[in-house]
Amino acid sequence: MSFTSTLNITDKQILDACRVIKLVGEKTKERSDKSLLEEDYTVNVEIEYTFDGKRKNTPVKIVLKKSLFNTEDGDSALLIVSNTAEKVKDLLKEDPVSGVSKVVTIDKLRSTFVRYEQKRDLLKSYERILADEAIVPMIPSVLGKACMKAKKHPVPVKLDWETDKLKKNLEKGLSTALLFVNCATTTSVRTGKLSFTDEELLANIRCVLATAFKYIDSNRIASICLKFTGSVAIPFYEKPLGSLAEEKEKTPVKAK
Fold first, then answer.
1. Residue 93 forms beta bridges with which residues?
2. Which of the listed residues 154, 174, 194 is the one where a domain comes to its end?
3. What is the pTM of this model?
4. Signal peptide span per the entry (predicted)?
5. Measured distance CA(69)–CA(133) in Å, rounded
6. For residue range 65-96, what is the model confidence (pLDDT) as tens digits?
7. Which end of the chain is more exposed for a tag (fewer CB within 10 A), N or C?
8. How far apart are the C-alpha atoms of 182 and 202, rounded to whole Å?
């Protein structure tokens, strides 16, 4: 059973929201400084829900139909590994992955990028951060607030020492979005860009919703909307107020 059929969300509802968010983007660019006119805003799917007490400590990976990562736009990726940088570099020299421009060990990251400004500038240099899935839990303590503010959470990838599998895993990581399910009441997933066609946005939104349904009970979802940084929310699903109140009453209360 799909997420959209459970909530009775039609393609038309989603497409209407896509068209509106793109119009909002055009108006925003018209009001912006000229230096920002070429900026391609990232469209996020934002899900508001009541937390059921089942926290997922690691992000959920969602492989999108159309990647936000595009080397033709000059996008590049940083790959963070443990102590195997030389081996990975050798494999990538043998069979390069387009867009993965730098490989660094977490120890090198920790010793070289110490100040907040250094970490911030590093993150600005790359559109995507990939990391060996074995060391992902360590990275927040190394990059800290800079990573959170830049909203560039590392995408976990499995480092396989067979060249073809390594390449496949890294390419999949470049097309992956992350879903966080924790004790917050809202989660946001980077889903597309304003330059995408309506159909491309729709396909990516379907991917996000199908995965989200596996981790968030649809009965607890209050609303689903599209947004980009600084924009108003454009909803394409809102739960009836009566049923939302019933779900809030069922939400477990943590003991103090």
1. none
2. 174
3. 0.84
4. none
5. 20
6. 999 999 998 999 999 998 766 788 888 888 89
7. C
8. 26
